[in-house]
Records
---
Amino acid sequence: MRTLAISAIVIAIAAAGPAASKPRSSLPTIHTLLSVVSDGHREPDGSTWFKTWSEGARFVLPANDDPSTEKLWNVLLVSSSDSRAIEIGFDAAGANFNTDTGTIDFPVCSARLDDIIFTRSPACAANQMDAERLSSPAKAALGWAEVANGSPAAALPLLDNAIADPKLPQPLQVIALIARSSANSQVAYRARPTSEDSDRAFVAALIDDRRLAELQPTDVEHRFSEAADLFALGDYDGASRLYDEILKLWPDETYRVTVRRAALARTLGQNEHSLELLNSLVPGSAGEDLGMKFYYHRGWTLMKLDRFDEAIADFTEGLKSQPDWQWAYILRGCSYASMGQIEYGSGDFAVAAHFLEALPSARSSARVQHDAALANSIAQSLKKRAEAGETSPVMNLCDGFWDQLDNGRPRSALLDAGAARPAG
């Protein structure tokens, strides 16, 4: 892990006034995030901080003599080294904006990975915040927390209000825009694919991502997000042009661009071309650590080409570096079933359902609930077949999960109407 000195917190994110005894619009103070640790450090004074793949925030534990804090560090080390997601409980009401790191720093309440469990002592108090009485920075922090918790409907009004405040510091505005783009993407994925509701949410995300590219032109992530929005809206030519631009400005992004292009080709039914692109990234060709992203997408493409045994080998290789990626289990389960290996397929779908049900968004996302229920149903159906001794191939089990990604879609009429022009 990279070692950094912990920075002074200089701007407190506090409510604009005293909390109402019976708030008209209350939201919980304790939130949950499921993510992989990307960076962290224990300071000489005993305090700890860490970041996840959600770059807008850090999670902080002040100096504490409680020996259970060692459990927190153990959870962080396993998550970082094994690329495994941990469940983090954090206090949104205690957030502070750190001007040195440009992050919202949230107090840690708990962390869990399998049987390694850290709980802060004394425990965080679970209260309610009056959302209508918060300052703009506090709304940005709470909105970020609601997005992390998989609650975009609660997040969007808070983020809209915070972003509309011209006095919101630009680093906080950036964090809020990223969170709002993510919230709208969550809304879009939970709606019926290619419906007007889904497209409007993706267009809103696209506008924010283009605004972010203006505010931070040297950050490639905003351009990747914009390309993903265009892909979701069926503008495959627009996404491809963006990949060209990314490679011109960031030539070291060959790996990610190639994987994205391969996914686009597969969506358009160009499976052989998709495989050709991915095979250009064989170890040693570009010095890349291929990882789950590569093996997941090549396995998916091989599955589309009915090369199921090779697909299974790729998914299995990817799961070595990211063993809790539910979609790899689902695709491997489909591949096993397509080869008549019914029992193995049933086991993979059961594991996938377990990981889906463990997502924080499973409590509020109809799409996640649908996918978990479908995975469970398929697992049980395959189990019955296996118990009956059946070995006949069972095909097309994955169609209910990714139909809109796997088969392409028309370009959204909202793009043609100019609804997604960059925000000024």
---
Amino acid sequence: MQIQRFLFVSLLCLCTYSLWGQSSTRQTWPLQVGFGLAGNAYLGDYTETDSWMRRVYPGANFSLQKANPRRVQLQVNGGFGKFSDQFEQNPSNLPPGVSPTTFIETSFIYTDMRVKIRPWPYARLQPYLSVGAGFLFFTPRDAQGKDLPNRIDTRFLGEDYNTAIPQLPGGLGVQYRISRQFTLGLDYMYRFTPSDYLDNVGEAGTRNGFDALHGLQLTLYASLANPDQLPPMMRKRPALSNSTPVRKPKEKKPSSSKPPKEETGFGISESKTPDPVVKPPVVAPRPAVVSAAREAEARLAIQEGRYVYYKVKRKDTLESISKDFQIPTEMIRTLNFIPTGNLQKGQSLRLPDIR
């Protein structure tokens, strides 16, 4: 069991490291931690057809994910639980020396990495589909508390198995955003295991196919960040007429003055050498001047969580966007975690929604 725990912790650390390093369009989204309760049910040789959902056993689960507004979200999960069941009668037509136990009890722990697909990531109510892969560790015991893997009389000769097996979780669920920092999730999860030995019965059982676990999970997610750094619900971008247009400087007409003349010994003639052209110095763009009232409206919109999203175009700069929306450049930097003034075409910027 110590080796199994070591594998469990190692896989969990690896999944957490890969999740921490996940990038999202030049923005560092904070982590979101989920804790919840689960009701697990066993599906195997001990399960009766008319009572496969009646025996539900408690468990717990936790998860780590990035609080990003993407439709596809990577999630690391772990949890534990137990189940027990009992045969009413032993299977018939068994070879001599094989006597499956009529009682099974096991605790289990699991870890996996899932991909959650959310069609509407900005909605308050978010249905989703999740699929993944991971490992399941279990310890089947009989009524006296003895480890069943050591009892070879409960299965056919030559049937050996591991208590650490792969598992493929899949589920359907829905999440409800209570606030910008807390989300409540409810989902149904089915854990497929390519093994028939969760109940230690194997080929001596009465049910064809692999054993599995399934049940319901109720999870509360909390974001480990300031609420101002979390993605709000999507709002429509305001009309262009509401924004202040960018005024282009007037072009200066070329001077019509004639070149200077010089005196020579034969009279006055025009100079053949023109004066050197002096180029104006390159002046760095100055930040847009935003009125105090406009800046106050922007700060009020941030406090109330009202935002719009703007997609950066090819010639956009922080200064031009600041003039366009009449929002200070430093406020745009802070909201979008931009250490420098470099913008990428197609980058999504979050701006205060000033009506």
